[in-house]
């Protein structure tokens, strides 16, 4: 008898949202009757293949306790860190004792509330058989330029090989923990989980998702997220 692989989710939610320019961290802004983080969490909490979810929170976070998931049997919290990679590592360490290194972990930005369930399902289905793991992304659409410091073009890049990296990013728990520990001990503050795995010489797989899986980064992204959730039929 083979045991079914267990899946966990980690949501880094300890950012302050500097680029958003709001008075409260962007993951707690209201988006169609819920907070951004509640939209992002719902898919993972409701998914019956996901055993549990760890949310990495900022130390000054007075907003989490008012969310719908603050007290939930499937959700636990961990302390966030200075950068996203520290927050993710802390959340992975919080799984020690209940998860196995061979279990899979899906890392998803709290600031990406429009992830489609079908993209999540496809990612899981394709990667459960993979030896390394991977992430959702989309191929770039525009002509890509590399600029010099004076903003004059240095080169036009071959876009056929370029993708936008999204989340979730899915790896074996033990591999991702080792990869992040390695990156941080080299002071390499990787901006996504796949980069940590790449540093170990492994090649994560890109799974094509949908462009509406945006990260709320700037003020104009919030109305766009509302539009996408409506278009997906998730809100009125
Ligand atoms: N120290 C940090 C920084 C970021 N994040 C989380 O990582 C995700 C992606 O980060 P980003 O969009 O860069 O969020 P912020 O750091 O909040 O944004 P900014 O860079 O504009 O301050 C977000 O869900 C954010 O809360 C985190 O858990 N811990
Ligand atoms: C993880 C991520 O969302 C993938 O696109 C991204 O790398 C976060 O980076 P940011 O520089 O903190 O926005």
Kindly list the characteristics that best describe this protein.
single chain, 236 residues, alpha/beta, Spore Coat Polysaccharide Biosynthesis Protein SpsA, Chain A, seven-stranded mixed sheet, 6 helices, 11 strands, 27% helix, binds cytidine-5'-triphosphate, binds the ligand C[C@](O)(CO)[C@H](O)COP(=O)(O)O
Cα end-to-end separation: 46 Å
Give the oligomeric state: single chain
Report the C-alpha radius of gyration, rounded.
18 Å
The residue ranges in which pLDDT falls below 50 over 5 or more consecutive positions are none
Tell me about the biggest sheet?
A: 7 strands, mixed
Q: In percent terms, what proportion of residues is strand?
A: 15-25%
Overall domain count: 1
Structural overview:
The protein is an alpha/beta fold and 236 residues long. It has one domain (7-231): Alpha-Beta Complex (Spore Coat Polysaccharide Biosynthesis Protein SpsA, Chain A). It is built from six helices and eleven strands. Helix 2 crosses helix 4 and helix 4 (173-185) crosses helix 5 (193-199). The longest helix has 13 residues, at 173-185. The protein is globular and about 55 Å long. The structure holds cytidine-5'-triphosphate and the ligand C[C@](O)(CO)[C@H](O)COP(=O)(O)O. Belongs to the IspD/TarI cytidylyltransferase family. IspD subfamily. GO terms for molecular function: 2-C-methyl-D-erythritol 4-phosphate cytidylyltransferase activity.
